Amino acid sequence: MGYNIQAASDAKHKLLVEFDTGSVNDTHALADMAIQTKELLKVEKMNVLADKGYHTGKELEKCKKNDITNYVSPKAPSTKDTGLYPVTDFKYDKEKDVFICPQGKVLRTNNTWHHHSDKRKGKEEAYRFRRFTTSDCKSCESRILCTHAKNGRYIDRSEYADVMEANAKRVNENPGYYRLRQQISEHPFGTLKRQRRFTHTHVRSKEKVLGEVGLMFIGYNLTRCISIFGIEKLIKLLKEFCFNLIKSKTRLLLRPYYGFIFSGLKITT
Predict the structure, then answer these.
(1) Which of 34, 53, 153, 187 could pair with 26 as two cysteines, CB 3.0-4.6 Å apart?
(2) What is the share, in percent, of the chain residues with pLDDT greater than 90?
(3) For residues 74 and 52, what is the distance between their CA atoms, to the nearest angstrom?
(4) How many CA atoms lie within 13 A of 258 on its CB side?
(5) Nearest alpha-carbon partner for 155 in 98, 96, 95, 82
(6) Rounded to an integer, what distance in angstroms lies between the CA atom of residue 48 and that of residue 37?
(7) What is the DSSP track for the chain?
(8) pTM of the model as a whole
(9) What is the SS3 assignment for 92-117?
(10) Torsion angles phi and psi, residue 262, rounded to 5
(11) Is the Cβ–Cβ distance between 74 and 55 less than 8 Å?
C-alpha cells in the first residue's frame, strides 16, 4: 500500500513483460515503462495502449522520439466552459497557425512562449504554451456566449499539442483497437487482485517491493505459460533455456583462462 506498481503486458498471451514503481500516480510513468519494455523485447517499433491517467504531452513526445506509437485515451480540456463556447469549438488551422472561433473570427499569437508550472511538482515545469487572442471580441455580439473575461477570449496551445492531437486521432479512428487495452492490462491485474488477493505489498523500500512484486508476477507468468504450452513442453523449454544459459555463463567465466587451460594441451592426429 502506497507503492504504485506499473506493468506492461503483451497483447498476444497477456504475459507481464516489465514492471516498476515510482510516482504515486500514472502521469509521468508512460514513457519510461514503454522504453524499458521496448528495450527488453529488442524491437525497433512498438504500440502502447494506456488509459487517460497516462495522458501527458511530454510523455507522448518522449514515446514518439523512441519509435513508440501511443494509443492513450485523451483527457477532456481542463478549462471549465460553464455554458460558454467550449474549447473544442475553436478550430486550429495548422498551415496559418491561427484559431477560428465559432463566429468565424481569427485568433492569432505573437509567438511568445509562456511557462505553465506544475504546482504538484514544485519547481518542475510542466510545459510551455502560446496564447492566441483577437481584438474582435470587443465588438462581437456573441461575446456573452463565449467569455466573461475583461480582455476577451483566449486559447492556449501547448508545445505538445501536435503529438496529443495525433494520439487522439489514432484512438478515435480505432476504437476497437483501443478497447483491447481492457483485455490486455486488466486480465493480469484482475487475476492477481481477485484470485490471488495481492492487493498490497507487505514490505517497504523500492528494492524490496519490486522483489515481492517480481515473485508474484513470475508466478502469474508461469501459470499463463502452462496454459499456453502445457506442462511437459514448458518443462522442456525451461530445461533448454537453463542449459544454454549455464553454458554461456561458463564460457564467460572461463574465457580469461583459455590461454592457461589450452597451453598444456597437445593435439595429436
Answers:
(1) 53
(2) 58
(3) 6
(4) 6
(5) 98
(6) 10
(7) ----EEEEE-TTT--EEEEEE-SSSSTTTHHHHHHHHHHHHT-S-EEEEE-GGG--HHHHHHHHHTTEEEEEPPPPPSS--TTS--GGGSEEETTTTEEE-TTSPEEB---PEEEEE-GGGTT-EEEEEEEEE-GGGGG-TTHHHH---TT--EEEEETTHHHHHHHHHHHHH-HHHHTHHHHHHHHHHHIIIIIS---S-SS-SHHHHHHHHHHHHHHHHHHHHHHHH-HHHHHHHHHHHHHHHHHHHHHHHHGGGHHHHHHT-----
(8) 0.81
(9) EECCCCEEECCCCCEEECCCCEEEEE
(10) -90, -10
(11) yes
Joined together, the cell numbers standing for residue 220 give 502469474
| C-alpha Rg value of the chain to the nearest Å | 27
pLDDT for the residue numbered 28: 87
Question: Which three three-digit cell numbers place residue 157?
Answer: 496551445
